[in-house]
Structure formats: structure tokens, C-alpha cells
Structure to design on (662 residues):
């Protein structure tokens, strides 16, 4: 696996550029910028678009090279063919991280793979480190950044769960369903094709991240499976790790290939290896949320004995049957 | 099993009495009366309570015998000890059906069983036929009757599903969750202890009820199991029958005993017998709703091949995995 960077300037950037900024919030660049403004991002915000002088009330720059100050993080929402050129400029500018929202890379087959290789070659001197392409980026409530869910939350407090996904839809729904259940997140990320930054890098980071008490993933395919297992083994000694795997079935793995260009691999082997490392497996989004809720409970139960308090008889019967089927005992 | 009556005057009564009427809508008799008024029940409505002259703006009668006209259906919400006396009066009045909401009968052990036997003995000349005791009664949207869910629906249109349950909580939640899913009901009933009218009577009625396209049950215990199976066999030749059984586990069946005074029986035998009769089994409330939705779809699928239309890649992967695990094929 590639070296894991210090992610501080990704999760807590002092300045962000949106390259491909638009005043149409239904376009990627407009959606992100609108979100940063609405969420009251506290750092400096620079729209970049050679065709505009102002976007959403902010001064707009023709290129990232024209921005006067330093840029920690760039959100890139330009057509795929233009991405390598933009990345070269980000390198020249010394940008630390780039979230490449643009799709049309390895998920589209051979030509897309070539373009993704070109994107990586455009990185000079190791900067920027790339998240994506084909991703929705970051939810970091302490930094007022949320490009995962369009409408920001009235209550966007940080919490103990970190959730990393290759998909955009999954963290979007996990954030919404999780919030409804009372779960709060340290971060949630949609990392797409993993051209540079991979699940392994983020797992390595989260092991020692003090704000993260529960690590969780939606995985379509691992780039460095043996590294992941090694890191998971280390992680589960310190905190719970939950994995929901997409593409378990043949038809699911075909969908995976066209979604994030990943190879889903053999699920039986995947699961056995994960369990050996102490990872908890979720089989769908509801189970994922349930496990997050369970692992963030203030008191973990000491045994399998359960009491049920129910206002209704039918509810007590249904609860008792369900508890029994999950191996719980009602004395 | 006891004879199945013509249920017309239960589902479409021209007049109703609420015995134990109260102006406190948090008491049974107040709750029912409030519901009938709010739901704009179209027939005649008679509150009965010897201590009041008016309840909720309606003239109140000291006893059902003082009501001038005929009474088709009586809702009884008086303390359990007073129920047999009230039933005798209902018999004298010629009331067709009585819903006994009052609890404190066979679900409470030996003394309760004796009181329930006394209740049945109070019936003279076969009238009234009893629903309950220990039940919430009826949802019959075409008659504007709903004592199952406190707050009536803005859209309480009739539909093709009939649902009969021993519990009150289950139909309450089935109606609410079902409505959210777009399912509409011909009737839903909470029948409690089945002292007189049983699940078998209602199944026999629903087989030939033209408004019912799907028959569904929440069962805690059957009074006449072999009759039920015989009827289910007849019913499934005409329309789908869905059963969710409460008290499948030992602890669940203990809850059943204290809920509706039923014996839950051996679940393996129960399930095998149901399947032989062509009954579809649900294992929880969500599955019950899913089956109702499936059986009321306008076009039943002809095979196991499925297409998935999804806006998001992660949703397509999750859908494909889930479809595969349920034996569906995505060509």
C-alpha cells in the first residue's frame, strides 16, 4: 500500500478551492460550494472557474494558481478529461489534498483506466494526495464540511463513529439513518475509485485517531487486501471495526465493477479473513447502523439475559420471539 | 368451532352504543367515543353511563335498555366484574355484537377464566356475539369506525387487505406501517381472548368476502386448530392467506399466555401445517407488511428475473446483492 499521509489538512483544512465552481447547485461544483457556504465553513473558500468573476457571492479565480494564499484542499468537479491538467496545477500550487468528484475513470473500462493513470502521473512532488476520482468526498462536522449529504443537518455535532465508503449513496444514507438513530460521526467519507488514497490508508489513520471510537466501512473492493487484514487485526485490539461488503453475489460484483471499477473478490474468503481479524460483519445498511448503535452504547451488556419493558402485549410477544431467535435469554 | 354469524352488522352497524362512555379520551370508553365522533361515524351513536346526562355533546343513557332505538353493536368499556351484567342487558336489548374492550379475564389465570365463563353464560338467545374480551375491536373504514388506532387517518379509504389479530398493538402498527407503504384495508380487527368469536369465524367469513383480496392474521393461539387448517386450505384456493405467529419461542409463548390467555402450541408443527395449507408465513411485522404489499401488487411477476433501476452505484450494488440472496436473478 501507498504511504498514509497526515490527514489533518484533509479533515481540518484552513482553505479550500472548488475547481469547476458553478452557481447552479444541481451541478457538482455548485452543490459543493453551496454546501460549504450553508454549513458556514470557517476557513477560506475559493471558487475556481475561468468563465466567471463571481460565484455565489464569492470572488472567483480563473485557475488555482491565481489564488493568493495557500490551499489545503481542492474539490475538483470538472469533466474527466480536464482533471489531469487541473491536478498538475494543484501540484504546482502545493495543494495537500484533492477530492476528485469527477466520474468517468476506471469504472468505465480500459479508456477510463488510462485516464486514471494519467491523473496519477499528473501529481508532482507527491502533492496533492488524491481522494477519488468518482466520489462525493467528505463529511467532517467539526470543520463544517459536508459534501456527502446535500442538505446539512440542523444538529451536526461530531461523534464517536467514523465511516469510510467507496460509494456516495451509502454514506449519504448511513449519515441520514444514523442521525435518526442518534448516532453521531467523527467523519464519513465517500472515496470512490481509490486511485491514490485507499481504505487501507484511512484504516491506518483511524486506528490511532482518538476521536474515533468505532471504525466502520462499506467496501466494494480492497486494493491491498493483506495490508487491510494486518491493519484490521491491529485496529480491533483497540476499538470495534465494522464492515459491510458490497458485491457479495455475482450480480452484485458485476455492479461493483461498473460502480467503482473494483474487483469484489471471493466473498467466502473475504468474510472468513475478516472474522479472523475480529471484524464485525454487516449484511445490509440496517445491520450496519444497528452495529454502530450497539458499539456506541454507553454500557455494553455483560451477558445474554434480557428484560423487556413493553406497554403492549403484542409488542412483548414480538420482542420475546425476536430476542430468543438472536440467542438472548429472558429469565 | 362455534357457528360463524353474518358479520354485516359488526362491520356496518347502523347504531352503536358505548357502554362506559367517558368524557376523558384517555379512558377506553372516552377514546372510542371520541374516535367515532372524529371519524364521523354515520349511524346513531349512544353513550351509556348511569352517572352522566351528556358525554362529548351527546345525550347519555343510564343503561343500554334505556336507548329508544335498536342497537347493532355495543362497545363495552366497564371494569371486568361489571361486564357479565352489561352483557345480560345487551341480550335483553337484542344487540347483535358486543366488542368487550375490558381486560381482566382468562389472560389473568384461574379467576379470570371463571369470569370469562360467566361472561359467556350472560349471553341469552345467542345474542350478542362477543368480540374479546381484552381487545381493541374494529377498523372498518367504509363504516367510519376505527378503535384500533387512536388518531384516525386523513386518507382512510378501504382497500383489499383484511387483517385479524389477537393483539391490539399489532393491528395498530400494521395499519400505520401499512398505510405508509400504500396498503389499504377492508378491515382490521383486534379480537383479544376469543371467548366467542374466534379467528376461525373470521377466516370463514373472509373466504367469501368479495371486498377482501388478501387475508392476513397475527395469531397467538388457535382455539380450533383443525378447523382453521381446513378453512385455510379452502381460502388459499381463492386468495392469499398470510400468517404471522406470535409466541414461536418458549419465552414468546410465556408472553402469549399472559397477553391473550392463549396456548401458543408447538411452532414447528404449526408452521408445517400452515405451509401444507398454502399459507404464507411472516416472521415479523416488516415481513407481514412486505407480503401484504407483494400480494396487492397490480401485476404479480411471472418469473425470478429482475431489473434494477437505481440512481446510485452503491444502491445498485446493495440491491443486486439483496436480490441474489432472495433467489432472484439479474440477467
Amino acid at each position: 500500500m501507498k504511504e498514509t499521509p497526515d490527514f489533518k489538512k484533509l479533515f481540518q483544512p484552513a482553505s479550500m478551492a472548488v475547481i469547476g465552481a458553478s452557481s447552479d447547485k444541481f451541478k457538482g461544483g455548485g452543490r459543493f460550494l453551496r454546501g460549504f457556504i450553508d454549513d458556514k465553513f470557517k476557513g477560506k473558500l475559493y471558487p475556481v472557474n475561468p468563465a466567471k468573476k463571481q460565484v455565489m457571492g464569492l470572488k472567483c479565480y480563473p485557475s488555482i494558481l491565481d489564488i493568493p494564499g495557500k490551499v489545503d484542499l481542492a474539490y475538483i468537479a470538472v469533466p474527466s478529461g480536464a482533471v489531469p491538467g487541473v491536478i498538475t496545477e494543484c501540484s504546482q500550487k502545493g495543494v495537500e489534498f484533492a477530492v476528485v468528484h469527477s466520474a468517468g475513470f476506471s469504472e468505465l473500462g480500459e479508456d477510463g483506466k488510462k485516464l486514471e493513470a494519467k491523473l496519477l502521473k499528473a501529481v508532482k512532488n507527491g502533492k496533492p494526495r488524491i481522494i477519488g476520482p468518482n466520489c462525493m468526498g467528505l463529511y467532517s462536522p467539526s470543520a463544517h464540511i459536508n459534501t456527502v449529504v446535500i442538505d446539512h443537518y440542523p444538529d451536526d455535532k461530531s461523534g464517536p463513529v467514523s465511516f469510510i465508503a467507496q460509494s456516495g449513496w451509502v454514506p449519504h444514507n448511513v449519515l441520514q439513518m444514523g442521525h435518526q438513530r442518534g448516532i453521531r460521526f467523527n467523519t464519513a467519507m465517500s472515496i470512490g475509485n481509490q486511485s491514490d488514497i485507499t481504505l487501507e490508508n484511512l484504516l491506518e489513520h483511524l486506528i490511532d485517531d482518538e476521536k474515533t471510537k468505532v471504525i466502520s466501512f462499506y467496501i466494494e473492493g480492497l486494493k491491498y487486501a493483506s495490508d487491510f487484514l494486518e491493519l484490521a487485526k491491529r485496529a480491533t485490539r483497540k476499538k470495534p471495526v465494522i464492515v459491510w461488503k458490497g458485491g457479495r453475489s455475482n450480480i452484485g460484483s458485476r455492479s461493483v465493477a461498473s460502480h467503482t471499477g473494483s474487483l469484489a473478490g471471493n466473498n467466502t474468503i473475504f468474510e472468513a479473513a475478516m472474522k479472523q481479524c475480529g471484524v464485525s460483519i454487516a449484511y445490509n445498511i440496517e445491520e450496519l447502523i444497528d452495529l454502530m448503535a450497539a458499539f456506541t452504547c454507553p454500557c455494553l451488556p455483560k451477558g445474554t439475559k434480557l428484560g423487556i419493558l413493553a406497554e403492549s402485549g403484542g409488542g412483548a410477544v414480538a420482542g420475546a420471539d425476536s430476542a430468543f431467535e438472536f440467542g438472548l435469554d429472558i429469565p
User: Anything to note?
Assistant: The longest helix of chain A spans residues 313-325. The interface with chain B takes residues 107, 165-170, 218, 220, 246-252, 254-256, 258-260, 284-285, 311-318, 320-325, 329-330 of chain A (CB under 8 Å). The CA atoms of residues 38 and 152 of chain A lie 8 Å apart.
